[in-house]
Amino acid sequence: MATPFVQGRLLDRALTCTVETVCAVSRRPIVFDLDSELGYHVRPPAEEPVFFVPMIDVAGLDAPCIVDDF
After folding, report:
1. DSSP-based helix, strand, coil % in the chain, nearest 5
2. Number of CB atoms found within 10 A of residue 36's CB
3. 24 in Cβ contact with 30 (< 8 Å)
4. Using an 8 Å Cβ cutoff, are 23 and 30 in contact?
5. Dihedral sign, Cα of residue 70, residue 3, residue 1, residue 9
6. Range of the domain at 50
7. What is the pLDDT of residues 18-66, one digit of tens each?
């Protein structure tokens, strides 16, 4: 999810990506666009999903991968 944000800063330009997934509970499709400013737009017919940006103390990670600490 951080791809447009990180790459946008590294390349010093605006980027957007489209994420296509399904709800883990209802199995309904969710499609949204995410931009390099962390703005998003959810495409119909999805309801507004809950988005969050985890705040992580990178220096304090114990796991070998950031995903392992979630």
Report:
1. 25, 25, 50
2. 20
3. no
4. yes
5. positive
6. 3-69
7. 989 888 888 888 898 988 888 888 888 776 666 666 677 767 777 777 6
Q: Provide the number of structural domains found in the chain.
A: 1
Q: pTM for this one?
A: 0.56
Amino acid at residue number 43: R
- Is there a contact between 43 and 31 (Cβ–Cβ < 8 Å)? yes
Q: How many residues are present in the chain?
A: 70
pLDDT at 34: 86
Please state, in angstroms and rounded to a whole number, the distance separating the CA atoms of residues 8 and 1.
12
Q: Residues 34, 52: contact at Cβ < 8 Å?
A: no
